[in-house]
Amino acid sequence: MAEARLSALLFQRARAVIPGGVNSPVRAWSAVGGEPRFLQQGKGSRVWDADGNEYLDYVGSWGPLLAGHAHPEVVRAVQEAVRDGASFGAPTAQEVEFAEVVCSALPSVDLVRLTNSGTEACMTALRLARAYTGRDRILKFDGCYHGHADALLVRAGSGAATLGIPDSAGVPVPVAASTLVVPFNDADAVAQAFVDYRQRIAAVIVEPVVGNSGVILPRPGFLQALRDLCSEHGAVLVFDEVITGFRLGWSGAQGLYGVIPDLTCLGKVIGGGFPLAAVGGRREIMELLAPSGPVYQAGTLSGNPVAVAAGLATLRLLRRPGTYEQISSLSQLLVEGLRDAITSCGVQACVNAVGSMWTIFFGVDRVENAEQARACDRERFRAWFHGMLAEGVYLPPSPFEAAFVSLAHTDADVTQTVEAARRVLRRLR
Ligand code: PLP
Asked: How far apart are CA 394 and CA 406, in angstroms?
C-alpha cells in the first residue's frame, strides 16, 4: 500500500475547521487508531483515496450502496433529475411512484412519508407511536442504534429493564429516562417491562437484525414474540429497517422473518447513496401525520427529486429477478471463506452474517446480544482492520459495525478478500 500523505494533510486541515475533522464520528477511525483515508472516487466495488490508493470496499457508505459505487443507471437517473431542477419544495410525480414502490414491496406499509435521514424517520415513528397510544415510554434494545434523536441516544443497562441513561452529553435526563433498554434477543425482559410499565409503553423499536453492534441475528421466535407482546399490550411495534430494508430482500427483514410491524423506518438503500429515508406503516397510525392529522413532521428537502431519482433507479435494479439470490450467494461464499480462514489459521473469532451483511468478532465464539459483542477482542480487531487495509481491503473502522457486500462485488473480489484474510489472520494467531 502506498503512503497516505494527502489524506493526512487533509485530515490536518479538516480538524482545523470541522469538529474532530469529520462530519460523522465513526469516520474518524477512533476505534481502530490511525488516520482516516479521504476518499475521492468510487466505482463498482472499489474506492480510491486522495493519494490514489485503491481499496476493495466493504463499507458501501455504511449501507446505502447495495448497487455498488456510481452504478451507471443510478448516475444517469441522477443526472437527468438534476437537469430538471434540484428541488422544488412541491409535490412531484416521482415521489408518488417511489411511495407506490415502497408500499407494494412492504405489505405492512399502507402509507409512507419521506424524510432526509434515518434519524428523522425513527424520531417520527416514535412521535407517531406516542400520539397513537397516548403513552410516553419507549422500549429499545441494548446495542440498537436508531439515529441521534434525544430519546434514542441512551446506553443500555445489562440484564433486566433499566431506565435509559443519556449516551451523549446534552441529552436531558428526563428525555432519556423515558426510554427503557433491554437486551436484544431477550423476549422475557420485554414481557417483564410490559408488566413493570403497564399501559405506559408506547412503542417497541428494534433493528430486526442488529447492524449497530456488529451484525447480530434474531433468535428464532424473538421477533414474533415482540409482535405478540406489542399486540397484547397495545404498543406500536417499530422495525427500524434503515439498514435491512431492501437489503435483506425486497420486503426487508420483515419479509425474511415473516413478522409484520406496525411502523417501519427505512433509509440507506432506498436513497442509493443520497439523503433519503422514510417512515411507513398502518394507515390508521400514519394518518396521524400532518396535514392529515395532529402529529407534526416536515422537511424542506424531504422527497428531494434527485434523491428520489437515485432511490428509484436503485430499487429498479433490485427488483430484477435473481438479484437478491446473486448477492446472497456471493456473500455466503465470502463468509464461508472467512470462517474457513479463521479455523485454518487457529484464530478465535466468529462471523455473524445474514444476506449481504456480516461482522467478524474476535476472541468470542458466539454473539447474540450487545453485551457479548462488547466482550470481543478490540485489539485483535484493530490489527485485523489495519492488516486488511494494507492488503487493499477497506472494512468498517470499528468492531461494532456491519460490513456490506454489494451487487458490484464479484467472485474475484471474494477470492482476493479471503486470500488477504488468510495472510492477515495468520499474523493474528
Ligand atoms: N437506524 C439504523 C438502524 C441505522 O443504522 C442508522 C444509521 O446508521 C439510523 C437509524 C440513522 O440513520 P441516519 O444516519 O440516516 O440518520
From this structure: 14
Q: Is 140 an annotated catalytic residue? A: no
Cβ-in-10-Å burial (0-12, 13-18, 19+) of 208 comes to buried
Q: Work out the number of other CB atoms within 10 angstroms of the CB of residue 386.
A: 17
Q: What average pLDDT does the structure give for the chain?
A: 95
Residue of 145, 216, 241, 359 with the most ligand 1 atoms within 8 Å of its CB, for mutation = 145
- What sign for the dihedral angle of Cα 102, 112, 313, 42? negative
Nearest to 403 by CA among 364, 367, 336, 351: 351
* Cell 435526563 sits on residue: 173
pLDDT at site 159: 37
- The pLDDT value recorded for residue 154 is 79
- Mean pLDDT across 224-237: 98
Residue corresponding to grid cell 429477478: 321
Contact (Cβ atoms closer than 8 angstroms) between residue 146 and residue 140: yes
271 C-alpha to ligand 1 centroid (Å): 13
Name residues contacting ligand 1 (CB within 6 A). 62, 117-119, 122, 145-147, 207, 211-212, 240, 242-243, 267, 277
296 is catalytic: no
Residue recorded with cell 405492512: 108
Q: How many CB atoms lie within 10 A of CB 88?
A: 11
Residues 369, 189: contact at Cβ < 8 Å? Answer: no
